């Protein structure tokens, strides 16, 4: 239901989609056959970077205008939402974490490791 509203918002901000005729869950390709009758996914031109660029631009503008502050190397646990609008975020600690070069951030583990996270 919200697809039209979201699609027009994205189009209005310059994000367009590949005109995909075939799609991954296409069934047997017959009109009366099994499978989906409409695509279940959409691919944006520029894929990840093309989509992120729009939101990164808004974030940089908000930072320039004093509406957004970046705190690099901080973990965010939740968004603070008031009246349906994100107003901030909550983090477990306000201290900056600067790991040594080549080390993993505290509380994380390597995908190859079975050891528990470091305290």
UniProtKB/TrEMBL annotation:
UniProt GO molecular function: oxidoreductase activity, acting on the CH-CH group of donors
Listed InterPro entries: FAD-dep_OxRdtase_2_FAD-bd, FAD/NAD-bd_sf, KsdD_DH
Biased composition (Polar residues): 110-119
Residue span(s) of domain FAD-dependent oxidoreductase 2 FAD-binding: 3-94
Region spans: Disordered: 83-119
Gene3D superfamilies for this protein: FAD/NAD(P)-binding domain
Coiled-coil positions: none
UniProt keyword annotations, A-Z: Flavoprotein, Oxidoreductase
Official protein name in the record: FAD-dependent oxidoreductase 2 FAD-binding domain-containing protein
Organism field: Streptomyces haneummycinicus
């Amino acid at each position: 239901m919200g697809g039209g509203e979201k699609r027009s918002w994205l189009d209005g901000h310059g994000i367009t989609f590949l005109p995909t005729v075939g799609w991954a869950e296409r069934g047997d390709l017959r009109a009366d056959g099994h499978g989906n009758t409409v695509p279940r996914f959409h691919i944006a031109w520029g894929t990840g970077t093309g989509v992120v660029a729009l939101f990164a631009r808004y974030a940089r503008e908000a930072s320039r205008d004093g509406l957004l502050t970046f705190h690099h190397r901080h973990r965010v646990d939740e968004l603070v939402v008031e009246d349906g609008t994100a107003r901030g975020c909550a983090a477990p600690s306000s201290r900056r974490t600067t790991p040594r070069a080549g080390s993993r951030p505290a509380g994380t583990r390597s995908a190859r490791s079975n050891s528990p996270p470091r305290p």
